[in-house]
Specification:
Three copies of one chain form a homotrimer.
Chain A: E1 2-8, H1 9-16, E2 19-22, E3 27-31, E4 41-44, H2 48-55, E5 61-64, E6 75-78, H3 82-93, E7 108-109, E8 114-115, E9 120-121, E10 126-127, E11 132-133, E12 138-139, E13 144-145, E14 150-151, E15 156-159, E16 164-166, E17 174-176, E18 183-185, E19 190-191, E20 196-198, E21 205-207, E22 212-213, E23 218-219, E24 224-225, E25 230-231, E26 236-237, E27 242-243, E28 248-249, E29 254-255, E30 260-261, E31 266-267, E32 272-273, E33 282-284, E34 289-290, H4 291-302, H5 304-312
Parallel strand pairs in A: 3-4, 4-5, 5-6, 7-10, 8-11, 9-12, 10-13, 11-14, 12-15, 13-18, 14-19, 15-20, 18-21, 19-22, 20-23, 21-24, 22-25, 23-26, 24-27, 25-28, 26-29, 27-30, 28-31, 29-32, 31-33
Antiparallel strand pairs in A: 1-3, 2-6, 16-17, 33-34
Chain lengths: ~325, ~325, ~325
Amino acid sequence: MQFPSPVAVKWIADFIGAKIIGNNIGYATGINEIHKVEPGDLVFVDHPKYYEKCINSNASFIIINKETAVPEEKALLLVNNPFDAYCKIVQHFRPFEPSSKMISSSATIGEGSFIYPNAFIGNHVSIGNNTIIYPNVTIMDHCIVGHNVVVQPGTVIGSSAFYYNTKKDREVWYKKMPDCGRVIIEDDVEIGAGCTIDRGVSHDTIIGKGTKMDNMIHIGHDTVIGKNCLIAAQVGIAGVVTLKDGVTLWGQVGVSKTLTIGANAVILAQSGVGGDLEGNKAYFGSPVQDARVKQKEMVWVKRIPELWDKVMGKKGGG
Amino acid sequence: MQFPSPVAVKWIADFIGAKIIGNNIGYATGINEIHKVEPGDLVFVDHPKYYEKCINSNASFIIINKETAVPEEKALLLVNNPFDAYCKIVQHFRPFEPSSKMISSSATIGEGSFIYPNAFIGNHVSIGNNTIIYPNVTIMDHCIVGHNVVVQPGTVIGSSAFYYNTKKDREVWYKKMPDCGRVIIEDDVEIGAGCTIDRGVSHDTIIGKGTKMDNMIHIGHDTVIGKNCLIAAQVGIAGVVTLKDGVTLWGQVGVSKTLTIGANAVILAQSGVGGDLEGNKAYFGSPVQDARVKQKEMVWVKRIPELWDKVMGKKGGG
Amino acid sequence: MQFPSPVAVKWIADFIGAKIIGNNIGYATGINEIHKVEPGDLVFVDHPKYYEKCINSNASFIIINKETAVPEEKALLLVNNPFDAYCKIVQHFRPFEPSSKMISSSATIGEGSFIYPNAFIGNHVSIGNNTIIYPNVTIMDHCIVGHNVVVQPGTVIGSSAFYYNTKKDREVWYKKMPDCGRVIIEDDVEIGAGCTIDRGVSHDTIIGKGTKMDNMIHIGHDTVIGKNCLIAAQVGIAGVVTLKDGVTLWGQVGVSKTLTIGANAVILAQSGVGGDLEGNKAYFGSPVQDARVKQKEMVWVKRIPELWDKVMGKKGGG
């Protein structure tokens, strides 16, 4: 999320009760995913394991619970509980803003677009031209939908991320990260029925121009799908994934978080992707492998009985 | 389901045209799942295979189609068609009660809670305080939602169970069991978008305090999820399953019916669980195995070609 | 799709600017799937690979981009771009007809049926007697729902097919085939919550009498499900599939396109079906195999270490 205008680090320190270490005259321009962070951004860190990664990232302002060295152009904001401080900032700039109307009066809808009955269009949503939103679709606050887009019935755009702060010594182990990102649906995208696309926690979830999605597809927070991808029914993609252009995922494929799939890769049905994959190749299996390697492996498994007979059979085994 | 007040066995016998064998002065207190049944409960059985299990269960009143011995504190209710008799009782105490309002006038909604437009709240539903129900959510009759609960858009709570009486010599093989159970969502639970949680057939489906569910999760009838469980997107859990506290299920896991997963077990993505699992361990595969055993197995499969070459190669094979 | 009345081939040629080769006095009766096509039907073909199949099919009228020989009772309609010509015809006979009412005034609803609030019933939909449509259900234009049907909350009937004309030298690679087929739900069918059933592209998607579907099931375009089938939660069936009567699919099964599963076949949970299967047998695995063969294979894999020790152990390997 970009802030509406740059925010003085002194104001932020005051607001969350932090001590500033380092650059105390700077201005923060936004909040971002640690994988996407840019100069000017504010992030938080509360676990020693991630201190260094955070301080050495592109972020300019770091909410932290330990006093430590920091490059002079950056600032640490020292507090006891960085998670709570972060939540306070997000909720200030992106407060819960309930809507009681089926189409919010702050939403804009382009020429030639049609919204069916029972669709919900939240606050500050922008919908382009010649776009069709079918019945029982939900588009939550701040999402952006392009031109010539089709959203089939029952689909949800902008649901909240499945992303929690975990501490198992509390009564409630998991506390939700408040989210301030959006979903951006580019032009010429078609989304099937019953899909769910989570908004970014702090960055945006993006579906690239010309991509086509079948029914019941789940897209996690801050995930970026390239142009002209083809995603078949019941695929699930976790958070902070990158699909390059022209990727094809067949039915019921699962993709784990924070990984990248290269351009024009094809993932065959029911595969499970757990790490980065090169483009321009076909993959299969759970866990996924090069499709030809996996196919050979399936043939090898069929040969075990022959091997067994050869080794054991003549010696009275089997 | 508990009856509104205890019901005389004589009234029940009269109502369904049954002959009473055994205790004819008792009062039935409710109807229950055979796996959950308690003294005072009424059950039915129509297949000789289950006669003994039913008669020896905690149930006090058994609708049955065969005269047989019964402990003296219990009663058999002898009819030709126990399934039809059972349906008649359920439909009497839990009749179809259509609602034409988006929020039923018999529903109660706590302080600080917000119901978005296009959400449907059925008859006798109870929603606690500070709970958010997003657009296009459906909560069917008699369900109970606690405090500080979030239900993301498009989710269905209290859909009917997938549970049928089967006879393949009828024109329609499968006849629905009428359901009289509820869904109970405890405090601090968060449920993602596009989930479906079936109500209990005769017991309740329960989501324990602090449990967090991602999008498109299916929970079957009479299933009980413990506290602080974490369930990732597109998981499916069948009916009458027990998840103990702190269980984690990763994406697209499937769990078969009437089994128990122990506390703090972790089931890796796309696994298929077909039987009980001990707690405090990680599992993987379809069918599921101890994750380390499964990982070793995957390595062994890779070694078949080496084995083949060794055994066959020198003898002209391969 | 049947045309409202037979349409002269000369009118069609005129409408799309085609040259007629062959029978120029015939009447086309409808548009159909190439797998389902009948005499009188109009089809299109734009790829040399499919010219012969199309010309030798039952179709009487073929929109094509190459002049070629044709049996005398048939006609070719020669155009530069058969896909665009086909789209023009479909959109003429099945124009986009938006509805702003929750229940279209052209829909008919039988006696004893109940439509819950927030359900959307499109134009020309027909619903039989004693059918229940739960909240937040969407039934799109032209679909037909029989008697004694139950559609649980959030389900979508008649969403658009995931079926595209592909050309990777355009900016947008995938262009949607306009669809003119319907969904037909026969009597005594029950459909769970959160399902999506796509309408046929040119034929109909059919759910046979007495079939029961659990939650979150996806059914592709032009697929025909037999009578008394049982489909568990989160199953996905692609387009143009045939399930014969009495087929059982357990949870999370995936079925690929244009194949047939024989009567009374049982597919175990999480299996992936990639080709035709004979009836009256059980299957398991991804890709699917005869269940007994697959079970034996799983046992053989467990024996690799023993084989390894035997072969390698005594020679210092392992």
